[in-house]
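Treating backbone geometry as a discrete language has practical consequences that deserve illustration. Part of our work consisted of pairing the sequence of a single chain with a tokenised description of its backbone. What the numbers capture is local backbone geometry rather than side-chain detail. For completeness, the protein is quoted in full, as a sequence line and a line of structure tokens:
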Amino acid sequence: MRKLIVLGLMMVGFWSCDQATLQRVLDAAEAASGDLTSEEIANGLKQALDQGVDKGVQYLSSTDGFYKTDYKIFLPEEAQKLVEKLELVPGFQNVEEVVLEKINHAAEDAVKTASPIFVNAIRTMTINDAMGILMGDRNAATMYLNAKTYDPLVGEFEPVIVNALNKYNALDYWEDAVNAYNKIPFVQKMNPRLEQYITQKALVALFDRIEREELNIRENISARTTDLLRRVFARQD
């Protein structure tokens, strides 16, 4: 039977010059010629998430991966009043752009450092979860990872963000700016801490990059870079 499949595929290869179509037929034949175990499916999904994390981290941790991309982290809305008033305080002109550059470069550093946190979280996927994710929505693996790990990751990721912010002197600079603002008469006092806000923004960015890579793997055969990925995702084509 397997020989007949191979012969048929060879004939398809002669009849068609569409490489994407041929690869899809090959993947389907591979899936049909041998059943995947639940463990293999789970491992394939973990590979997909590993790949998504690797590429997401690589993108966001590159120079200006946050600062000069759509993922740029801006100050929270309530901080805009502070920025406007500080323009009148000596020594704090252009404070917004100085702070934005510092916090975005800190996020770039932190994403790289925190990669093992996400890799370990991926390992928690169980075999029972695997088939539902594979045959679910096009971002089901990312949503699973988000639901299972987001809250714990906030707790683990925030200290990494704080270390990165300290490296760029961002927290001290912002705290000085907020303290100067709080001394202005009749203003509503503000909290000088930014790390929780930046942590949330950085994690949203990383999960978005992971989701983009999952969609790429699901929809683009050439993005399936291992034999296991090709065999597993042929099931949902």
Q: What stands out?
A: Residues 41-228 form one domain. The first helix runs from residue 2 to 15. The chain has one domain: 41-228.
